[in-house]
Amino acid sequence: MNMREKILNIASSLFDSRGIQASGVDTIILEAGVAKATLYKHFPSKNQLITAYLRDKSDKFYAWLNAQLSSKKAESLELLLLLCELMEQWISQPEFRGLPFHIAAVEFPEAEHPINQYSVVLSAELQGYLCQIARHAGAKDPEALGQQLTILFEGAALVERLTPNTGAANRAKLAAMTLVRHAI
């Protein structure tokens, strides 16, 4: 593991467990065992470190999801139904702590803050991803279905973060499956 990855992994662990704002640069430096200059060499600002954290979390999620979905042919109802199952599975994991871009947007609520703006980008990226899958699966209105799925899964992620194991992920999956069946 290179130094950049080490710093990002330590920061990610701290952001996930303590919160982004509560994890100061000095704490990250101490936990990573690096000099301040080393951290700033790889991440010139805390905002850039946070952005890297959010990007890394999103990339890992999409890599996992793409690997799971690759077993289904593109134009099929089964692809979308599997997507619904996988979203429930992801949100229901014991280590699930919510959507990082939701948490970042809450911690940086000012609309002009770069982290809030990047969180908006990541939310739009998720919706675009779901629209693309709906398009490939043959949905009549892939943009509408993608947005509906985004609303359901982002909502379920928030509910499960606030009140774990209440069945929100399963209910969102069932609602999504109903939408999917009517959209194809």
Question: Can you give a write-up of this model?
Answer:
With 184 residues, the protein is mainly α. It folds into 2 domains: 1-44, Arc Repressor Mutant, subunit A (Orthogonal Bundle), CATH 1.10.10; 52-183, Orthogonal Bundle (Tetracycline Repressor, domain 2), CATH 1.10.357. It contains 9 helices and no strands. The chain has helices at 3-18, 25-32, 36-42, 46-69, 77-91, 100-107, 114-136, 142-162, 168-183. The radius of gyration is 18 Å and the shape is elongated.
Instruction: Specify the CATH homologous superfamily of the largest domain.
Output: Tetracycline Repressor, domain 2
Structural class: mainly alpha
Q: Please give the domain count.
A: 2
CATH class of the largest domain: Mainly Alpha
Keywords: DNA-binding, Transcription, Transcription regulation
Protein name: TetR/AcrR family transcriptional regulator
GO molecular function: DNA binding
Pfam families: TetR_N
Q: Descriptors for this entry?
A:
mainly alpha, Arc Repressor Mutant, subunit A, 9 helices, Tet_transcr_reg_TetR-rel_C_sf, DNA binding, TetR/AcrR family transcriptional regulator, Tetracycline Repressor, domain 2, 184 residues, DNA-binding, single chain, Homeodomain-like_sf, 2 domains, 75% helix
